[in-house]
Design brief:
Elements (H helix, E strand, L loop, with lengths): L16 H23 L6 E3 L2 H13 L4 E8 L14 E13 L2 E6 L1 E4 L2 E4 L1 E2 L3 E3 L23 E3 L5 E3 L1
Antiparallel strand pairs: 1-8, 2-3, 3-4, 3-7, 5-6, 9-10
């Protein structure tokens, strides 16, 4: 009997609360504050998807030969009319990929599938971005903190004062 060993494609790792807090704070101080200033409104800080929809996307990706997902940093155009509150804000686009070994190394190719409308990329977007959709504090109806305190940051905006995010 011939046994073929499947090589693991894992590249990430589980991280600590301290690590999450550090990278979120770094992002807020070095990128978010400038993005928000340029936009003239608070840029999004997170994107939420349900486990159900992620499992569905993973299942569909696997059915088309996928073995990975790329998370593309992206932004909605300023004139985005489908969800005007998302206009200009950043988001994540999930794209199914298949690992390919080339002479120059390993690459992760985006998967395209044939459908009724022709060939299109196998991708997922339109999660719940925060802001503007950040949930509410129970019993108040007031927009709440969707991290439970992780990454709370005070940003010095010079003449514009301090911002707590």
């Amino acid at each position: 009997m011939l046994t073929i060993e499947k090589k693991s494609l894992k590249v990430g790792k589980y991280v600590s609360t301290e690590h999450v807090d550090t990278v979120i704070r770094t992002y807020k101080q070095e990128r978010w504050v400038h993005n928000s200033e340029r936009l003239g409104k608070e840029d999004s800080l997170s994107v939420w998807y349900s486990i159900e929809e992620l499992e569905e996307f993973l299942s569909r990706s696997k059915a088309h030969g996928g073995d990975g997902i790329k998370f593309y940093f992206s932004a909605y155009p300023e004139n985005y009319t489908e969800r005007p509150e998302f206009a200009g804000r950043q988001t994540l686009v999930l794209v199914a990929t298949k690992t390919k070994e080339l002479e120059t190394g390993v690459t992760n190719k985006d998967i395209y599938i044939k459908g009724e409308e022709g060939v299109k990329i196998l991708a997922y977007n339109a999660g719940s971005i925060c802001p503007p959709i950040c949930g509410t504090k129970p019993g108040t109806g007031v927009s709440g903190d969707d991290w439970g305190g992780i990454g709370v940051t005070i940003v010095d905006r010079g003449e514009k004062g301090l911002t707590v995010i």
